[in-house]
């Protein structure tokens, strides 16, 4: 995630008041909480009663509850691009389950749908909680810790699967038997990435 003011600099925290991502040059720390300069100036110049009753960035429990509706938890956190990606991935898996794929794919897609359905509220809760504490946003599918576009990779894989299905290439016996190779490649890639980070 990049700073809202400096597009080329990585964000190191979020404003506790407005939730805007900020770099170290833009953050103003007050008693362990981070604020952007406009919010801090507004709180200092506002009357004391108004400052104390000003709403924060949102409640993590609300984000968790709304996260069970695809995309709504991300919308509550103000992450509209992430919400769109969540809806597209969720809808894509539903569409894949509704298409005429070989029977071997249905358990795999069903497990993926269940995992992704519970991922969305948990991820919305973690983001809301981090913002409430003024901490950096935790790693997720859209923007991982290593700055790899995992969300884009998932969308590309789903798109390739749908394209192959449209041309009836998924019906071939060799493809139906070889799909676990994708899991092996993904596992090797994650393992190498972890080893590179730890060294």
What features would you describe in this structure?
With 199 residues, the protein is mainly alpha-helical. It folds into two domains: 13-53; 60-198, no CATH class. 59% of the residues lie in helices and 5% in strands. The chain contains nine helices and four strands. It has helices at residues 37-45, 48-53, 60-66, 72-76, 80-98, 105-133, 150-166, 173-178, 180-198; strands at 13-14, 21-22, 28-30, 33-35. A two-stranded antiparallel sheet has the order 1-2. A hairpin with a 6-residue loop joins β1 and β2 (21-22). α3 runs antiparallel to α6 and α5 runs antiparallel to α6 (105-133).
Q: How would you classify the helix and strand content by structural class?
A: mainly alpha
Indicate the overall shape: elongated
Beta-strand level of the residues, as a percent range? 5-15%
Tell me the count of domains.
2
One letter per element, helices H and strands E, the order comes to EEEEHHHHHHHHH
- Spans where pLDDT lies below 50 across 5 or more residues: 48-56
Placed side by side, the strands forming the largest sheet appear as 1-2
Q: How can the largest sheet be summarized? A: 2 strands, antiparallel
What is the number of helices?
9
* Amino-to-carboxy terminus distance: 24 Å
Quantity of strands, as a count: 4
Mean pLDDT: 75
As a whole number of angstroms, the C-alpha radius of gyration is 21 Å
Summarize the amount of helix as a percent range: 55-70%
